[in-house]
Amino acid sequence: MDLTRAAWRKSTRSNANGGACVEVADNLPDVIAVRDSKDPAGPVLAFTPASWRSFVAACPTPR
Predict the structure, then answer these.
(1) CA 5 – CA 61 distance, rounded (Å)
(2) Which residues form the DUF397 domain (predicted)?
(3) pLDDT along the chain (63 residues), means of 10
(4) Which of 12, 33, 57, 58 is deepest in the core (most CB within 10 A)?
């Protein structure tokens, strides 16, 4: 998978102290990519747009 054009953005729920940070790239055709911001060269999870919507819908809403 070619992620060279991925525009990564940090989750709004990321911790301000540099921990628990998730980045998402949703600007690529047909794929939503997710990675750990502390390890940008590390593994990436790849979702289809439909599976990403299902994943997000299944996540509990923070209080």
Answers:
(1) 30
(2) 6-58
(3) 92 67 92 92 95 91 73
(4) 33
Cβ 41 vs Cβ 25: under 8 Å: no
Residue 33 amino acid letter = A
Are 24 and 40 a contacting pair, CB within 8 Å?
Answer: no
**What is each CA distance from 11 to 1, 15, 18, 25, in whole angstroms?**
22, 9, 12, 10
The structural domains of the chain, with segments of one domain joined by +, span 9-58
How far apart, in whole angstroms, are the C-alpha atoms of residue 45 and residue 63? Answer: 26
Per-residue model confidence (pLDDT) at position 46: 96
CA distance 41 to 8: 12
